[in-house]
Write a structure and sequence with these properties.
Layout lengths: L9 E4 L2 H10 L6 E4 L9 H11 L4 E4 L13 H14 L4 E4 L2 E4 L2 E7 L5 H18 L3 E4 L14 H8 L6 E5 H11 L3 H6 L6 E6 L2 E3 L5 E3 L7 H14 L4 E3 L8 H42 L1
Parallel strand pairs: 1-2, 1-12, 2-3, 3-4, 4-7, 7-8, 8-9, 9-12
Antiparallel strand pairs: 5-6, 10-11
Length: 300
Amino acid sequence: MRRSGQVCGIGIGLRLELAEELLERRPPEIRWLEVHPENYIRRGGRFRTTLRRALDSWPVVTHALTMGFASAVPFDAAYVRELGAFLRDVGTPWHSDHMCFASVDGLFAHDLLPVPFHEESLRTIRQRMSEARDALGIELAFENVSYYASSEASDLSEVDFTVALLEDPDARMLLDVNNVYVNSRNFGFDPRAWIDRIPPEKVVQIHIAGHHVRPDGFRIDTHAEDVCDEVYALLDHTLERVGPRPVLLERDGNYPTLDELLVQVRRLTDIYDRATAAHAAVREERARSAHETLARDGQS
């Protein structure tokens, strides 16, 4: 099933609601796809057939929903073995899950539950990521999540907690720009300053999505609305800061037509291409300056 290929530019999630038209048309604007392994492990039929067809045209990256790197107990060994086989099967360059927990005493909440931002949580996430990395044999990235209440147990800010996690030499991040924006509006911080704290070399992938705004202004991360202008602008800032990284447009409900989705993909591509050109210009200027310095040194 495996297909090799560079993951760059703009991708979307492979969702059955859009899959048939997507696979029929195979629009070139979409450069790669993201899948949730939970939709395919121990499952055949249409899900597996759709994935095999998708791999004929696109690289695929995996993103999980149920492990949760803040789990208080070690991951189920049988599931991890099945997950590892699936990751190898699709040839994903890295695998990601969330900076959260999703179950308690074996019961799944079917939600991404945030952790208190303190030292014990840091130790737990580091340990679980190390265990998963060793078992899966692949680069892992954690995703920052939206949360809707602050824990009284926290003694760090979210960004301080995130930066501390990234101090681990093996740690990588899937930076969700929409989640940063949602949290910034709900809790009153500067999202650009938050993103500026993240070490650029640690970011392997970016998520962007739409969210719901309640009448009272509180924001809920739904992936069921179009991306708002403020999140597009924050993505522009993010790519300027970290450089061109693969960007996924998430859509998990209230699905538009494929043509409507492609309008957003093209807007994201424009932002991505500007960032790529800007970073190429910076590299060229640095190379030119280094060459001139060496030339001057050689003449002295």
